Amino acid sequence: MWNDHELTKMVAGGVPFPMLSDSGGRVGTAYGVYDPDAGVEMRGRFIIDPDGIVQGYEVLTPPVGRNVAETIRQIQAYQHVRASKGTEATPSGWRPGKLTLKPGPDLVGRVWEVWKPSMERE
Amino acid sequence: MAEEVKVGCARPTGGPVGQPQGKGPEENAPAQAKEVKPMIQVGKPAPDFVSPAYHQGKFTQVKLSDHLGKWVVLCFYPGDFTFV
């Protein structure tokens, strides 16, 4: 009903992914986002990799919305790290095409030589 | 993948996969001994679950472990029409 009445007016064709119901809050409880006092779930967002491992999550109380662009950025970073078989790491604010770091003995204490905080905003 | 479910007024609810069913916390007396479950941990397996779903005009069942091999974003929200 929400999809028909409102969401289709935001997204052409309606929500493209399955919308699940968790009326008893049991799935939310398993994920630590269900508030039994209020009887609702918090705004939780979990990134789960192809092996079923939780790589990241964010949980907000109801009045503040999430940031889809940040979720996509994190997935892109995890996909890059996974494709490198863990040989690369992405500095803060990393986006596809930007510099990655190759952690190893040579890099210890020398990140400042290759990466500057200003690069996060470039 | 997700199987379509017959439309009806009484659809079964979902829940975590592999957990005992039908036991409320009251039955697991005494109350003080209530097990405190740790919050989800990054780097650890996501709890599997099955849940009724609505997808492109149909009711289906979604099971998390059916999506192994793909990246999954799982979002919770307080309720429909909750503004943000």
Would you give an account of this structure?
The complex is a heterodimer of chains A (122) and B (84). Chain A has 122 residues and is an alpha+beta fold. Chain A has a domain at 1-41. Chain A contains four helices and five strands, in the order αβαββββαα. In chain A, the strands form two sheets. Chain A has a two-stranded antiparallel ribbon with strand order 2-3. Chain A has a two-stranded antiparallel ribbon with strand order 4-5. The mean pLDDT of chain A is 93. Chain B has 84 residues and is mainly β. Chain B has a domain at 48-84. Helices cover 0% and strands 23% of the residues of chain B. Chain B contains no helices and four strands. In chain B, strand 2 and strand 3 (58-63) form a beta hairpin. Chain B is globular and about 35 Å long. The two termini of chain B are 30 Å apart. Mean pLDDT of chain B is 78; it is low at 22-31. Chains A and B meet through helix 1, strand 1, helix 2, strand 3 and strand 4 of A and strand 1, strand 2 and strand 4 of B.
Give structural attributes.
heterodimer; A: about 120 residues; alpha+beta; two-stranded antiparallel sheet; two-stranded antiparallel ribbon; 4 helices; about 15% strand; elongated; B: about 80 residues; mainly beta; 3-stranded antiparallel sheet; about 25% strand; globular
Largest sheet of chain A: 2 strands, antiparallel
Total beta strands of chain A: 5
Look at the helices and sheets of chain B and give the structural class: mainly beta
Number of helices of chain A: 4
Order of helices and strands of chain A: HEHEEEEHH
**Strand content bin of chain B:** 15-25%
Output the strand order for the largest sheet of chain A.
2-3
Portion in beta strands of chain A: 15-25%
Strand order of the largest sheet of chain B: 1-2-3
Radius of gyration of chain A: 19 Å
Radius of gyration based on Cα positions of chain B:
16 Å
Spell the H/E element sequence of chain B. Answer: EEEE
Mean pLDDT of chain B: 78
Summed up, the helix count of chain B is 0
Percent of residues in helices of chain A: 25-40%
- How would you describe the oligomerization state of the chains in this entry? heterodimer
Structural class designation of chain A:
alpha+beta
Total beta strand runs of chain B: 4
